[in-house]
Amino acid sequence: MEARTKQRLSSLTRVAFLAAGLTVLALLVRSAGASALAAAMRSALPWLPVLLTLDAARVGCDTLATYYAYGPLGRTVPRGPLVRAHVIANAVTMLAPAGRTAAEATKAALLARWVGWPNATAAATLMQSLALIAGALITVPCALSAFILTGGSVLTYAIAGQGVGVFVLGLSLRVASRNPRIGRALAKRSRKLENAAGEFQKTTREGPLVPLAPLLALVTGRACQIAQYGVLATAVGGLVTPTHVLLAQGVNMVGLAVGVLVPGQVGATDGAFAFSSDALAMTQAQALAVAMLVHVLQVIGTVVGTLTPIVWRVPDDPGPGPA
Question: How far apart are CA 100 and CA 251, in angstroms?
Answer without folding.
Answer: 18
